Amino acid sequence: MKSFKVLGPGCRNCLAAARLIEEKAQKMGVEVQVEKITDMAAILGHGVMSTPGVVLDGRVIHVGSVPSDHQVERWLKP
Q1: 49-60: per-residue pLDDT in tens?
Q2: Residue closest to 33 by CA, chosen among 76, 1, 66, 78
Q3: Rounded to whole angstroms, how far apart are CA atoms 22 and 44?
Q4: Which of 29, 41, 43, 69 has the most crowded CB, counting CB atoms within 10 A?
Q5: Band of the pLDDT at 48, cuts 50, 70, 90?
Q6: Is 52 helix (H, G, I), strand (E, B) or coil?
Q7: Which residues pair with 78 in a beta bridge?
Q8: In this structure, what DSSP letter does residue 51 have?
Q9: How far apart are CA 61 and CA 14, in angstroms?
Q10: How does DSSP assign 25-48, residue by residue?
């Protein structure tokens, strides 16, 4: 199982990023856990200054925008 965290204050783009990961995972048949982190101290603790940020298995892999379909598909591949 892949573990994602979407970092952001709950804005539209943050929700869109989380939804995109969940939808692509379901479509690809990949089991994921998506956690939404809205606490600013926790977000800054990851070194993210621009949201949404995406963390995969403890590593920041994207910041500042909703990821593209292609990016998410690449993250979900084994």
Answers
A1: 999 999 999 999
A2: 1
A3: 24
A4: 43
A5: very high
A6: coil
A7: none
A8: S
A9: 14
A10: HHHHT--EEEEEE--HHHHHHTT-
